[in-house]
Amino acid sequence: QVQLVESGGGLVQAGGSLRLSCAASRSILSINTMGWYRQAPGKERELVATITSGGSRNYADSVKGRFTISRDNPKKTVYLQMNSLKPEDTAVYFCNAALMTMTLKYDFYWGQGTQVTVSS
Asked: At the N or C end, where does the chain have fewer CB atoms within 10 A?
């Protein structure tokens, strides 16, 4: 069974930091682009950051300079370091990844989401 398991969410004061992790299950043969998205109450899900298998990064303008995405390929894990958090960063954060299974093709999968709450 293919799984993306997220961890690291929580409650933090404005200006604080959190680090999110997302690990793919061992059955995965290969991972292409990985990324983080978020969805605030009453809003659509939006891109936060992505990182390709080669390490190229892309960020939403709202998080540039504050968030850093990274990955550990042997551990099949992607991270999101979030610094200088603001109340508007409050959302459920979802991991997304293009994973290759025994089908030998890439498909996109989502994690279950982890809540990040930033208090003012």
From this structure: N
